[in-house]
Amino acid sequence: MRFVTFFVFSTMVAHPVSAQWVIEQSPTAANLRGIHSLSGGIAWASGTEGTVLRTADYGVTWQQCAVPAGAEELDFRGIQAFNEKTAVVMSSGPGNQSRIYLTTDGCRTWELVFTNPDAPQGFFDAIQFEPGNNLFGDVLGDPVAGKFAMFRTQDGGRTWSKFRDYERASAKDGEVVFAASNSSLLEVRGRTFFVTGGSRSRSRTIEEHQKHDPFIFERFIGGNLPLARGASAGAFSVAAHLGPGAWYSVNASNDVVRPVTPDDVFVAVGGDYQRPEESIGTGAVSTDGSLNWLASETPPHGYRSSVAYDAASKTWVTVGPNGTDISTDDGRHWRPLEPSAGEPVGADKNWNALSLPFVVGPNGRIGKLRAGALAP
């Protein structure tokens, strides 16, 4: 779902935490919404006008990649990288403006591998691959004919197939997905998981007997989210901190057994992007696998488009147009992360998407979390 980007400058609330984002030199003025950070200093970013960026030196320098042929006016809102040479990038737009491109030569050349088959309808919102697995990935799109558009690859993004239509994949009236930061979709513990907004703000889960068969649905579960609701409101991003327990198993009768894993924490953020200063309904947390959610007792202090978990410091980080917040109690309470003395005013603001340690935003804005900013 498309939406407008707002540039907001505001006064922070009390009890801020210092140390912040280091603003990096960027080779573009594009609006950046996609960011994927890998190990070894490699990260890829994407945005408007067919923009793709890449770094292999921890963000010291960012290379502007070749624009895929015919993609000069496309909005690349999602990117997933496998290494320094290989990545897939997803454009969001109505009809055939929603596409997927693949590079295997370090972004010197691109291959168009998939175009929205529901044109003139449809709108791609997010693309994600299974953690640690470069073969299996999913694309999520706005509902078409009342059902969420969902596609899967089993060969690293070279080919894509549409999920079989089941009534369990139906969207509720007014339910939408937001293409804000490529983080409304999540792959965890063999599940495909996403969050929605609109007139209903919900979490959605697909559980399958055979995760890698795109035509077998076991369950399609929905849980209500205590976040803002409305045409421009809802859940925009979700992340998970997984505990040591297994999420599901299959018994002798081939039934899915779904034990609760209390150590698994899910955090969703959002709000109303047309009212970015409003803090009501901007954060929620679940500790039972997304079936039940509680609103953050102290929510992020404005609309938030992206959230991530830093395992080293056991800290959640969320960003948006009017600032950055952190939580050290699994999303129950949030406090602002402000610039340190000597850092640029507004270093905490005007961000779209996170993939720690990097953050991206409008006008080619790229930041990197200062080393030691989040104390263990």
Structure commentary:
With 376 residues, the chain is mostly beta strands. It is built from no helices and 32 strands. The strands form 8 sheets. The protein has a 6-stranded antiparallel β-sheet with strand order 14-17-20-23-24-25, with no helix packed on it. A 4-stranded antiparallel β-sheet has the order 1-32-31-30, with no helix packed on it. A 4-stranded antiparallel β-sheet has the order 2-3-4-5, with no helix packed on it. Strand 2 and strand 3 (43-47) form a beta hairpin. It is globular and about 45 Å long. The two termini are 37 Å apart. Residues 4-15, 209-220, 247-251 and 254-260 have low confidence and may be disordered.
Label this structure with key terms.
mainly beta, four-stranded antiparallel beta sheet, 32 strands, 376 residues, Methylamine Dehydrogenase, Chain H
Summarize the entry for a quick read.
It is built from no helices and 32 strands. By secondary structure, it is mainly beta. The chain has a single domain (21-369), classed as 7 Propeller (Methylamine Dehydrogenase, Chain H), CATH 2.130.10.
Instruction: Report low-confidence residues grouped into runs of 5 or more.
Output: 4-15, 209-220, 247-251, 254-260
Looking at the overall shape, the CATH architecture is 7 Propeller
The number of strands is: 32
Q: Report the CATH C-level class.
A: Mainly Beta
Envelope shape: globular
By oligomeric state, this entry counts as single chain
Sheet with the most strands: spatial strand order: 14-17-20-23-24-25
The major pleated sheet works out as:
6 strands, antiparallel
Question: What is the CATH homology-level superfamily?
Answer: YVTN repeat-like/Quinoprotein amine dehydrogenase
Radius of gyration: 19 Å
Q: What percentage of amino acids are in beta strands?
A: 35-45%
Mean pLDDT: 87
